[in-house]
Specification:
The chain starts with 10 loop residues before the first strand and ends with a helix. Helices cover 43% and strands 18% of the residues. The protein is α/β, with parallel strands linked by helices. Helix 3 runs parallel beside helix 4. It folds into two domains: 116 residues, Rossmann fold; 120 residues, Rossmann fold (3-Layer(aba) Sandwich).
């Protein structure tokens, strides 16, 4: 028996895109949990990659590029293999992805949400500076609007897009009913999961404990009438695991 199986018997619904879910699922299995895989979206290149690539080249003169996710890092590098300016990351995982490419990442540790990043001194006095936000299609505009209000010249460069995957609603509802807890890694995935549910699947979903990446998604869940989620201390696989372990320990105490 594995003495490290702190999540033994726990059934965890994992909604992350399949290409990115496996490391998390393996960690869950190593702790004794059973991952229930339900990838709700796929991450794909933008429809006009040449335009995005040209925008990246033209933004090389910016004071900094702000990356909002590891997907943004991966897809930007596929489009532009040149030397990037100073980079700022939203989240430890995004910072790690940039470091793997040899980038010097500025202020990654305390900024795992857009709101936390905007509170950092480096982004408070930005009048007359130029920033590029490298992100996915349809992302939030909090970074853009706040930096513009502070006097920065801002360009948003979308380098990837999320595409909803088709699922049988009855099958998706069955997975929700079988789960003890769900890890939802984006607000888009949360909305997609609720939209998938047939009438008989809504009540189990509303009762299901959730772990989500940010306070913004917590508020979204509340508006949708779902269980108030927990948020990990960082947006990393290890932090999601710690969050589940803390939740389970509290349930047993």
């Amino acid at each position: 028996m594995n003495d490290g199986a702190t999540l033994r018997g726990l059934r965890v619904l994992v909604t992350r895109p399949a290409a990115q879910a496996e490391p998390l699922c393996q960690l869950l299995e190593a702790r004794g949990a059973t991952p229930l895989r339900l990838p709700l979206q796929s991450i794909e290149p933008v429809r006009q990659p040449a335009i995005a690539a040209r925008a990246l080249v033209q933004a090389r003169g910016a004071d900094a590029w702000i990356f909002t996710s590891t997907n943004a890092v991966t897809h930007a590098r596929r489009l532009d293999g040149g030397r990037w300016p100073r980079t700022i990351a939203v989240g430890a995982a995004t910072a790690a992805a940039l470091r793997q490419l040899g980038c010097d990442v500025d202020l990654p540790d305390g900024a795992f949400t857009s709101e936390a990043l905007l509170a950092l001194p480096a982004l408070r006095d930005v009048a007359g500076r130029r920033h590029a936000i490298v992100t996915g299609e349809g992302g939030r505009d909090a970074l853009e609007s706040t930096l513009r209000a502070r006097g920065s010249e801002v360009e948003v460069i979308a380098v990837y897009r999320r595409v909803n995957l088709p699922h049988d609603p009855v099958g998706a509802a069955r997975l929700v009913a079988d789960a003890d807890v769900a890890i939802i890694t984006s607000g888009e995935a949360l909305a997609r999961l609720l939209a998938l549910m047939p009438a008989e699947g809504e009540a189990p979903l509303r009762r299901l404990p959730l772990v989500v990446p940010s306070q913004r998604v917590v508020e979204q869940a509340r508006r949708l009438g779902l269980s108030t989620p927990r948020v990990p201390d960082q947006v990393t696989d290890a932090a999601y695991l710690r969050c589940l372990e803390q939740w389970r320990a509290e349930c047993r105490s």
